[in-house]
Amino acid sequence: MWLIYKKELLELVRDRKTVFFMIALPVLIFPIIFGGMIYVTNEVQSEAQTKTLRFAISGEQYGRDLAAQLTDVETLELISLSEDISDEENAKKAVKDGLVDFIVQIPSNYGNDVINSGQIVLKIVLNDAQVNRAQSRVRDITDVIEETNQRAAFASLGVNEDIQKALINPILVEKVNVADDREQAGSVIGGFVPYMVFILCLSGAMLPAADIGAGEKERGTLETLLLSPIDRVQIVLAKFLTIATAGATTALITITSFAAWGLGAASMADINILTEFMAAIDWVDFVLIFLMLVPVVATFAAVLLALSIYARSFKEAQGYMNPMMIFVIIPVVIALIPGIELKGVWAWIPLTNVALAIKELIKGTMDYVQLVAIFGSSVILAGALLAFCVYWFNQEKVLFR
């Protein structure tokens, strides 16, 4: 068995395309892609904040101070329109036609005397599907005016500062969070890591799996292997271990690469949150997170090997394997549903229990007793799938279909 395993690994390493997908993509291309996405997102947000927007005002005569403050903003340009933009439909049409980016409609009861004017409804007509932060820019100005008017109204009524606070917020809810920084950060990051690990394990194992089974059929080397004095169970186990090794290697290299790039970027950008979060995770939890790859790759390797053995050609095998991506995402999505925890029946559902366990390990709230259920269910599933592979491999009609 180990001789075949060594042979398969050597063939795997000699295949430049496979090595590229296993090493080059995780180390260089994936971090560049995700880093580029983050960079572009930040640039878009920054541009949305600084971009000069054209706007028009309806009811300027009711709020000349507000209009003056809006005009004084460097990134806002006042445009005069011939249409009657006090009508909401005309205002919507002007924005849709691109005449202006947004329109501010000032009501007739606008004024600085809160007691007499009552509540003021200031309307902003804009295309909210565009990233331009128009509403937040207007809100920055109105917040200052609102606070000034409130203080003036309270002063005229003779209300002291403590009573003012009580009137504005009669009931103040103060949150006392028992979760530490690691648990809070882990609740967010912990949902992303299983998704990445599952996809990488599967993608890293798919190419070797298609080549080990269906590829050997096309090359005509499968018959030679079957004529050797080696039990077919050992042949299946060797191929199974090769696929599992490829999937685990890809996932490990990618996670290590992301961690290295992330810590490097955090140190250069002086981001202490990420480094403190990584330092808070115990080495035992790190080891257990990596051990969670064992049930994942075992399940994937067994399924992929069965599909590869059944397929007539390399192309057909890839056609069978590609839809598996959908089935990989489902367990991760289930693990992200609020209220689903690593308890009871969920601890025995394969893949979902691993996703939940990784999340709990990152958060630092893992119940280590549940590891029995996780590895137990995974061993049962992987063993059953592996037994099916052996059965499949012993069927001549399947091997030479």
From TrEMBL:
Membrane spanning stretches: 20-40, 192-214, 235-263, 283-311, 323-349, 369-393
Superkingdom of the source species: Bacteria
Keywords: Membrane, Transmembrane, Transmembrane helix
Domain ABC-2 type transporter transmembrane, first and last residues per copy: 17-387
Membrane topology: Multi-pass membrane protein
Locations listed in the record: Membrane
Gene3D superfamilies assigned to the protein according to its UniProt record, in alphabetical order: abc type-2 transporter like domain
Major localisation: membrane
Keyword ATP-binding listed: no
Transmembrane in keyword set: yes
PANTHER family per UniProt: ABC TRANSPORTER PERMEASE (PTHR43471), ABC TRANSPORTER PERMEASE PROTEIN NATB (PTHR43471:SF3)
Protein name according to UniProt: ABC transporter permease
Source organism of the structure: Glaciecola petra
